[in-house]
Sequence to fold (311 residues):
Amino acid sequence: MRRKITVIGGGNVGATTALFLAEKNLGNVVLTDIVEDMPQGKALDMLETGPLHRYHGIITGTNDYADMAGSDLVIVTAGLPRKPGMSRSDLLEMNAKIVREVCRNIKEYAPDSIVVIVSNPLDIMCWVARETTGFEKHRVFGMAGVLDTSRMRAFIAEAADCHAADVTCMVLGGHGDSMVPITSTTSVSGVPLSDLLSQDRIDAIVERTRKGGGEIVKLLKTGSAFYAPAASVVEMTESILLDGKRVLPCAALLDGEYGISGCYIGVPVKLGSRGIEQVIEMKLSSAELSALRKSATAVRRDIEALTALGE
Ligand code: TXD
Fold:
């Protein structure tokens, strides 16, 4: 039987995610949004792409949350994106309201699903989603690290003039200015990055990675990135639905790992059919570990701000 995947939010990230899911034949896709007729129109357009791109899944668009019933996986992209000059935290209050409403409906209509959060500010929205659904932590988590890592891999490949697929690295921490690109273990097919690039160039790549989302917001002017974010969430989805056991950086609720508890933060996890099957505690340099803990403090501060708002 084909799997059922619901994408909530049919905007830039949501619609692109739906298309990539269909192209990979990962299951039947339901695209939902509050804007009347829009998800129906986009889904029909994608269905009509199937004969050309040779996929045969059923793609439907809807404004009714009830249509997510029976979903194996729900991807939440509903919410406002950043505009130039905005930080991800500026979205906190508005998006918390949206994610809460969406998650109440997930709890009602897809109580057995795995939930992948994409909406920003990512780590806090994961926390809101878990609070609202009450689902076990292994099936509520977020996408950010795969995207930030992909950005860093692209920048390294460009600088070292090598194939991006050969670049292995990890960006951990919160999805914001405090993210932690890990350079101590970064390599190109096992060749340490420091053998290929000068420290100055590595530092510049780390800085560009941290500001990677903002670089695109500044260019687009009316919203934020969506091709690489959609490809990143599909990478996670594939590992979950095919029980791929990929080790990917995801926002996970920590319970003592890395000396951090009680908040979502980007760490390496193993993704399989149960969702997060293991949080992997990799050895970090002391500077990286303290940056990760500092990042968790920044995430916790946002959770407190949200709680103070009564949200
Ligand atoms: O790495 C990451 N996690 C991210 C996160 C990478 C890129 C984008 N990131 C965030 O995802 C971004 O900051 C936003 O918070 C979300 C969605 O970004 P997108 O670029 O897709 O925004 P759009 O194009 O504005 O689409 C959002 C859609 C829009 O069509 C709204 O009508 C819809 O969300 N929306 C809703 N859908 C369903 N249900 C409700 N309640 C709802 N409210 C708004």
